[in-house]
Amino acid sequence: MRLKLPPQLTKLVTMIFALTLIAISINLFYAPHEVAPGGATGIAILVQAAFNIPTAVTTLAVNALMLILAWWLLDKQTARRILAGSLLLPALLAIIPEQMVVKDRLLAVIAGSAIFALGVALNYRINASSGGTTVPPMIMQKYWRVKPAVGLLIVDMIVTLFNIPVAGFEAFILATFAIVLTSLTMSVLETGWDRKKIVYIMSPLALPAIKQTLRDQTDHGLTVHHVTGGYSGKAQEMLMVVVEQSDFQSLVDRVQAVDPQAFILAAAAVEVHGGTLN
């Protein structure tokens, strides 16, 4: 018999695990090499490198300030949502000992970025947050209509620039690399490797032949949309096919073999669930 935890307890356990991963990435990979890739923990790494103040203390101070700003400039619900993560992360940073487990700086940044991204992605899955510098982008969005992703990039790059006077230009390059690598890793973790393409096909003269070719020569799911021309007002059909990345060019070749002038539009399908469309 499987033990099923209450949803709130499951969320708490997941958040603690996610924050533990973030703390591990900081104390075992980033901080020992004095590489600060943005965020409240990045500020903490810089402060520790410059003034020898533990990362847990600075992270707690920054998170406390961000909680006050969230309560004042955003709303109480947002402050409550980030409260647990804002307190738990500094505690975990204090519990997990800081030590250099990888001597090579680049390898440490690569490993740290992967672990950090996994922790952040898990937090996103349960709509949790570690607080810190996730607050300024929300403030920028509310008052200046700056997109959160842009606001977060601005904040992270400002923090990252301080690597230069504190730890040198190499640390700045590694920190920038860490931000990019973390973003890419999170993208893969959130959407997976199994990406597909949605292909839309229109042909005023040869669509029935294209449809027959795809039915006879492939096992791709096929859906027919009835559409209307925006200028002509003429009703016509459009095919929609979902294919693996590796099958995309083969599909294009088959369509163009029937009608070289066929209109083909392809878009990335981030997630596909369920059966085929026939």
UniProtKB/TrEMBL annotation:
CDD domains: YitT_C. The chain crosses the membrane at residues 12-31, 51-74, 81-100, 106-126, 146-165, 171-189. Its main location: membrane. InterPro entries: DUF2179 (IPR019264), N-reg_PII/ATP_PRibTrfase_C (IPR015867), UPF0750_membrane (IPR051461), YitT (IPR003740). Gene3D superfamilies: 3.30.70.120. It is found in: Cell membrane. Keywords: Cell membrane, Membrane, Transmembrane, Transmembrane helix. Residues 220-274 form the DUF2179 domain. This is YitT family protein. It comes from Lacticaseibacillus mingshuiensis.
